[in-house]
Each structure stands twice: as structure tokens, then as C-alpha cells.
Amino acid sequence: MAKNIFIIADRDMDGAGCILAARWSLPTANIKFITANEATFRDTFVKWWANADNRNDTDLVFICDLNVSRDHADILDDSKICIVDHHVNKDDVKSLYKRAALRCNRAAKSSTDLVLQLFHPTLDERKQTLASLIADYDSYTLSLPHSLDLNTVFFAFQGDKVSAFVNYFKDGFNGFSLEQQNIIKFHKLKLQETLNGLEVYHASITLDGVPRNIYSTFADYSVNDVARYLIDSHKADITLVINLKNRTVSFRKNHACTYDISKLAKQLVNGAGHENAAGGVISDKLLMFSKLFKKV
Question: What's residue 249's pLDDT?
Fold first, then answer.
């Protein structure tokens, strides 16, 4: 088994979960990591890979939870690299690779789950609970009582959120501290203020031959919770939450809806994601699309 492992992970809770899953699975390995997002990944990887000491001293490099396998095969197809991602299926990208290992499965609820499936570690209850909460949130299934709150805590960490989360939850989940409970309470109060001030828009649009009830709004706080509110309160099939501060668009869907919203994100906002959650940036196509909506 590899002794020196390097991980480049997404800057979200699932990215942190991948790092924890690798450390739980390989407790004797020397595991280091850095984080990136899809926009910064290429520069981050090329800079790290260009250092001969990094390449020579590392037995295995994991690229975790970053939807980069399609666009960066030219730099990732190496025998030392393993791509772990639940945004694409292996069959979708395997023609691009001859040497790198691919652990890609869109049916997985999280990339954390894919790391655990790769190594099959025996986890205690606390670690299994944390992995389940991460998967429940990242797939936006939201069937577990604390998954939304856990993501609130993740974003409350200061500085490098992934490192802070990895350090705090290295032994798994055993409830929230008093400080974290107060953070969650404050978040819920601020969220309610946000929900009370929403202006909501609606359009019925046929996608894949089926009419879909799509609701949209503008928000710059807790967009996932805002999307969930639109789904629950308006029985939306699909939601768009537009953040004017950072010019991003988040897509979420009702689990009863069979449409893959990553397709809509790709078409409208140069985005990506997976079946239940996707996003991108405000574009001219989105502005044209928005003309179909009427205020509720």
C-alpha cells in the first residue's frame, strides 16, 4: 500500500470528507492535502506537479470531488493519479485515460462514499455517522436530522475551512458543541429573515418532454436552505437561486423530479454538478431564460 499520499480536494464538506475517509482507511500512510475548486484546479495541480520532489516523493495522488476529469485528462493521465468523483461516470471519461485510475460513479451519494468503497475500512459509529451526514448533505437527500446543520458548522469555520473541519472531526461526529449549537441557532434566525424577504418567480418549462415547475429567487445567504424552502413551500420541481453578490447561480431539485439539473446548469450558466445539485455563473443565456419567469 502507498506510504506517501497527496490529495487535491474540493473546498467543500465532501472534499473534507474525502480527506478524512482516506486517513481513516490508511492510518499508517503519510497523507497530505491541498484544496482547489474547478476554476483553480489546473493551476494548482500544474504548480504542485511541476515540483520534481513532489512527484518523486509521492506514491499516489488522489483528485477528490472535483469535476475535472473531462477537461484536464492531458495533465492527469498518469499512473500515480486516482480520480475520485461522483459528478461523472467512469464510462463517460475512460476513453480519455490510459494510465490514471478512475473511481467515478454518479450513483454515489458523495465522493467521500467512493473513497470508503475503494478501501472498505471498518469504521466506528462516530466515523460512519459523519460519513453518512456528509453523503446525505452532498446528495441533497436531507433525510438525516443533522446534515444541514453540519454544513452550517463547516461554513462557520474561519480561514481554511477544510483543514479546520478535518481537524475537528478527525474522530467522527459526536454531536455539536455548545458554540456550534449557538452558531446553528443564529443561522436559523438569519435564514428566516432571508426567507421572509424573498421575491419568488415561477415558470412552467418543458424539459426532456415533461413540463417542470421551476421557481427562482435572489439570495446571498444560505442558498441551499433557500432552495430547499422553495421546494417545500412551492412544490417546485427545480429551483434557481441567484446570488448577485458573487454572480453565481445554484440549481437544486425535488427528489421526485427525474430531470438531471446538471444539464440545465451546463446549458445556462457554463456550470456543472450532478443530478440533484449544480451551479455556475450568471450568463447572457441565463438572463434570456429569466424572461420566462413571472413574479409569484
Answer: 95
